[in-house]
Amino acid sequence: MAKARARVPENLKSLLRSDWIEIIEQANLGKEDTVIAHRYLLDAIPQVDIAEELSDLFQKSYDRSAISRRLPGIIAKIERAGIKLGKFT
């Protein structure tokens, strides 16, 4: 399986894995978006594979474009949570 190249803001690139996990959990993303965040940002899974996994997990149809559309909002929420937690400015 290929690794995804997650595109994140510069201030997020230096976070440790433990920081990512804490911020994602504190960002209150909801079940689906939390899975997307973990799989894309932490595990570097391609969007198409995440869509397939979500389809299996939640018994709904997802495609790569659905994941792509959701990622900017997920990353924005993670960024806001990281600022509130004092992980970066």
Using the CA coordinates, give the radius of gyration.
13 Å
Ranges where pLDDT stays below 50 over 5 or more residues in a row are none
Count of DSSP strands: 0
Q: Estimate what percentage of residues fall within beta strands.
A: under 5%
Q: What's the order of the H and E elements?
A: HHHH
Question: What is the arithmetic mean of pLDDT?
Answer: 91
| Span between termini | 34 Å
The helix tally amounts to 4
Oligomer state equals single chain
Q: Structural class, please?
A: mainly alpha
Largest sheet: none
Shape, principal axes of CA atoms: globular
Helix content: 55-70%
Account of the 3D structure:
With 89 residues, this protein is mainly α. The protein contains four helices and no strands. Helix 2 crosses helix 4 and helix 3 crosses helix 4. The chain is globular and about 35 Å long. The relative contact order is 0.22. The mean pLDDT is 91.
Break the fold down into its secondary structure elements and pairings:
Elements: H1 17-26, H2 31-42, H3 47-58, H4 64-84
Helix pairs in contact: 1-2, 2-3, 2-4, 3-4
Condensed summary:
By secondary structure, the chain is mainly α.
Quickly list its features.
89 residues, mainly alpha, 4 helices
